Amino acid sequence: MDCYFCQRNIKEIDFKNTELLQRFISGLGKIRARKRTGVCSKHQRKLSKAIKRARHLGLLPYTMK
Fold first, then answer.
1. Per-residue pLDDT at 58
2. Burial 25-56 (b: 16+ CB within 10 A, else e)
3. The whole model's pTM is what?
4. Contact, 13 vs 6, CB < 8 A?
5. The pLDDT value given to residue 65
6. Do 14 and 47 meet the contact criterion of CB atoms below 8 Å apart?
7. Distance CA 15, CA 51 (A)
8. What pLDDT digit, counting tens, does each position of 21-51 carry?
């Protein structure tokens, strides 16, 4: 299983792209693990940083319920 971002040749993960970031967040608002999403370690670090930045700016909620 290849990385989602490597397959699509996405170099940078933008924190303003909330639709993309929602795919990697669980129903309770937690960041999904690499084993569940199939993302490589390099992109998982960038993904978690983008999600945390979007949460801090109020673009994504910290918890869903």
1. 95
2. beeeeebbebeebebeeebbebbbebbebbbe
3. 0.91
4. no
5. 73
6. no
7. 6
8. 999 999 999 999 999 999 999 999 999 999 9
Tokens of 22: 């929602």
Q: How far apart are CA 43 and CA 45, in angstroms?
A: 5
Hey, what are 29's tokens?
């608002």
Instruction: Look at residue 64 in the predicted model and tell me its pLDDT.
Output: 81
SS3 content of the chain, % helix, strand, coil (to 5): 45, 5, 50
Cα angle for residues 14, 5, 42 (degrees, 5° grid): 85
Token digits of residue 62: 């910290």
